[in-house]
Amino acid sequence: MFFDDERSARLRPQILTEVVSQYLNDSERAAFYGLPESTRIRERAKIISQENLRIGEHCWIGEGAVLDASGGLEIGEHTSIGLNTLIFTHSSWLSNMTLQNHSGSDLIERKPVKIGKGCFIGGLVVIMAGVTIGDFATVQPNSVVAKDVPPRTLVAGNPARVFQRYDEEYIQSEVERVRAENARRRALSDDPSGWGSPSGDFSG
To answer: Helix 26-33 and helix 6-21: axis angle, to 10°?
Structure first.
């Protein structure tokens, strides 16, 4: 049933690592993968070539995300990667076009991806090889990022393009708005001790 060739021997530890990780909580999984202690990595997330991944403190990786670090992947501190998001740092396009898509093909191309600090990458996003996403950028869900994203911008679409730019003043005004609203909701809530916004209808 199990092959005993070089490729199988190389892939088997990664397969077993993914199986074992499904039985761990976020913090245990981060420790298991050797990520910073403050990392929260959800179930079914997959890291390819983990040795090429550099990730900052307080990052969140959503369920089913695939982080391909084979070409080099850097994720800055306080960045979230949405569920089922795909980050590619390699492409087999040329090996497909030339009918040379065999294991070990020398036509695989690798380019690093860099995602800055304080970024919010929505769910179901695809980030292509070679892309740099600037600090404090937001990528809306279902976007395909095929070129660099400037800092402090919101991008969306396929291909993703800039829809909004925001400065520190705008962010601070949003911080004040959300904190005030959450304080109001907690004051009306049956459980005022919780963090963030209490659930329920507080429109009255």
So the answer is: 150
